[in-house]
Amino acid sequence: MKKRTVPRHRFGAVFTGLLISILAIGGVNAQSPDFQKMTPEERTAYLNTMRAAAQEDWQKMMDVLRLKLPELPPPADDPKRPQHLKQRAGSTNWYDEAGNTHTRSGWGNWTNYDEAIANTYKLPDPLVLKNGKPVKNATVWWKQRRPEILNDYLTEIVGKTPTNPPKVTFEVTATEPDALNGKAIRKTIVGHIDNAKYPRAKPSLTITLYIPANASGPVPLMVVAGSNFTGPTPTGPTAMDMVLATGWAYAKINTGDIQMDSGAGLHEGIIGLMNEGKDRKPDDWGVLSAWCWGLSRALDYFETDQAINAKQIGIQGHSRWGKTALLAGALDPRWAIVFSTCSGSMGTSLEKRNFGETIDNVASSGLYHWMAGNFLKYGGNWQAMPVDAHELIALVAPRPIFITGGTKDQWADPHGEFLACVAASPVYELLGKKGIGATEMPKPDVSLIKGDLGFVNHEGGHTDLPDWPVFLEFAKKYFKTK
């Protein structure tokens, strides 16, 4: 028997979430070491331990579902490997001449960037009921079709949020009246999550809120989901600078406090708390849903803050947090606008399409924790998945949503994101709103913002900074300051 190689997602995807979570919160739990004080060797050993724990949990779920990966030859010997690919020293990934990342999934599928063979499967129609009858009006959408789609997502894809979540008590722990050289009032708000059910798990919710210092009344708010790991400092205005200059408030939430971004942390955080440290069941919520729950609890707080216009609160996220922002908008109708950037597969890009990141990649041991265990059934079996990205976008309707990609971020498949917008547009139109307003992919930096479903593919890579000015222009149609 040939030895099966352990599947790995690209290095950045496997380690970035774990690394960011640990850097943001200082460890996996109260007993974890301070990652920032470790030597490089200690970091490598620790990450390897965490990766092994995630692999073990992933395998447990595969066993529960009675799923097995196919026996595959080593990637270098795989006859299905595109011959033009080369490896770089020190990397397990492969690259083409354009520098695009290629991986082979555990199901044997190699990354594709050729539109000619993207081979999109037939998409489910968001305006056809499961019994085959068409959705002819808004009533049928709200009472029948939308619940069908949502149930598929909760059962098969992202998992079910517990119906008995713990109480969250908010405390303003710090206020700085002259933050940012007098431009803003900064508040630090901590949400204390009752963990009496399972004290070992210690999830929390930390909000950093900036309110324009010159605000004369309640203002709109943009909430950004992410981590405390900021990366390089921009040379120009930041997203926060731009939002505050518009006269709106800006809040940042570190999702790692709510739930660690790794399969190794599923017995901790809010998921571990609700399961009392036990393994997940196949339809239990994944990390993205757990983050969304925390974001909704933050929304509970914002509705009580008199400086905020509770009817004009939006959610933004980039990359994995772009997936989160989209899901948050689908799960909680209080989010008045959604801004999802470069979110790729299981975000705003069509999943039944073989281009860049795919279902297989998200179902890997490095990323599966984002989803419900049941999601693993669709690794290598894409056509069987009952939903696709355009339907998740449609769950946000009729509220406005702005979606972006980057010309040099083909992994996230910006064309697939645009196609999802096109496929979701009929739902917006059914509900009396305007869809994307185009069927051909726009040129780079040409924004489509006349409708209630907006899109732009910026010139550049995996970043959201170029998209903020366009989003703010789009959002001003809906958010007003007095």
Automatic annotation (TrEMBL):
Which residues lie in Polar residues bias regions? 89-109
Entry annotated with the keyword Transmembrane helix: no
Record-annotated 4-O-methyl-glucuronoyl methylesterase-like domain positions: 204-432
- In residue numbers, the region (Disordered) covers 70-109
Which GO molecular function annotation, any one, does this entry have? carboxylic ester hydrolase activity
Provide this UniProt record's keywords sorted from A to Z.
Hydrolase, Serine esterase, Signal
Q: What is this protein called?
A: Acetylxylan esterase
Q: What is the lineage of its organism?
A: Bacteria, Pseudomonadati, Bacteroidota, Cytophagia, Cytophagales
